[in-house]
Amino acid sequence: MTRLLRHAALAAALFAAAFPSRAAETATGTLVASLPDIDWSVEVTAPGFEVRQDALAPTGEGVRIVAVDEGRRIVMSVFLGKAPAKGAAPEARDYYWSLLRQKPFRKEQVRFAEFGAMATVEYVVPEMDGRKVDHLNRSAYMSKDPCWVEIQLTRNRDTTGTQEAFDEILRGVRFNESYRPSPYDDMRYGSVFFMRRDFKAAAARMRRAYEREKEPRTLDRETWVLLVDQLGLAELVGGNPGAARTLCDEALKREPKVSVLYYNRAASYAAEGNAAEAVKDLERAYENRASMMPGRKLADPAQDPLFEKIRGDAAFTAVAAKFR
Questions:
Q1: What is the CATH number of the domain that holds 166?
Q2: H-type helices in the chain, by residue range?
Q3: Which residue of 168, 268, 293, 305 pairs with 3 in a disulfide if CB–CB is 3.0 to 4.6 A?
């Protein structure tokens, strides 16, 4: 079991490294931030903004979205994270401002205020790294147990209508109590539970994403394959080889040349001691190895704990040697 958990930890690290980013997606008009352990979201009505970064911490404790409105030349950052202390919006502002003050650039014309239920701080950054920038910044803070929210807006100070533009954006910020994770979010939340070694929760999240992706499909092909791969692995490591095999059978009807699906199905047979079927699927996995995503390759079955039950089989030893 210890070796299997090591395998799970390695797989989780690889999953985090391979996880696709939504940085290139164009915003649909609303930015949505949530976390695996809460059932609500922070949403910002933001037409014209394009998402440049959408980064979920591997621990699931925080998420940051960075978006840019090229037309109005406004940069927005939305951060949602587990609160490091108790407190409402003013306490959140005081905490994050204390961190921001330590940053090595000058902050001038600092002004604390409130905007509706938000606590805000506004300041000017005249230069950065020895270069004149003259940026006007406004940061707004909210609190909803167990999290704090920080929304940062940045624009050149000499641009007309900046205060009005910032006000308009902040008026479009709200909590959504009826939040339903997208398949993409369920997928990456599943990765968080996988890294926590909560394989049941990981499989449940990824399974929901998989079922919702049957029709219509919202994930691109590469992301969908990664979803099926990691759902299969969560089932395997969680002790459900039959569920993993059924998943691979379904997925292979849709994508019959994906190497990792054959590999995972081989592991499901191996977990039940069926060396003959495992060897057949390992052969298929090797034949289709060119389908692997760039930068990824199949594991060595001879070193993979998922194949431990058939490690003494001669046919398995022969096919496993091809993977080295």
A1: 3.40.1000.10
A2: 2-18, 89-100, 162-171, 183-195, 199-212, 221-237, 241-254, 259-271, 275-287, 314-320
A3: 305
Q: What's the pTM?
A: 0.84
Is 275 within a domain? yes
Could you give the CA distance from residue 214 to residue 224 in angstroms, rounded to a whole number?
A: 10
Q: Are residues 30 and 166 in the same domain?
A: yes
Query: What is the reported pLDDT for 132?
Result: 86
In one-letter notation, the amino acid at residue 147 is C
* Tokens 């409130």 found at: 114
pLDDT tens per residue, range 242-283: 999 999 999 999 999 999 999 999 999 999 999 999 999 999
Indicate whether 58 and 73 sit together in one domain: yes
With 0-12 / 13-18 / 19 or more C-beta atoms within 10 angstroms meaning exposed / middle / buried, residue 205 is buried
> What is the rounded distance in angstroms from the CA atom of residue 104 to the CA atom of residue 107?
9
Same domain for 318 and 248, yes or no, is yes
Q: In total, how many domains does the chain have?
A: 2
pLDDT value at position 28? 64
Tell me the two tokens of residue 291: 């389908």
Query: For the chain, which residues score pLDDT lower than 70?
Result: 1-28
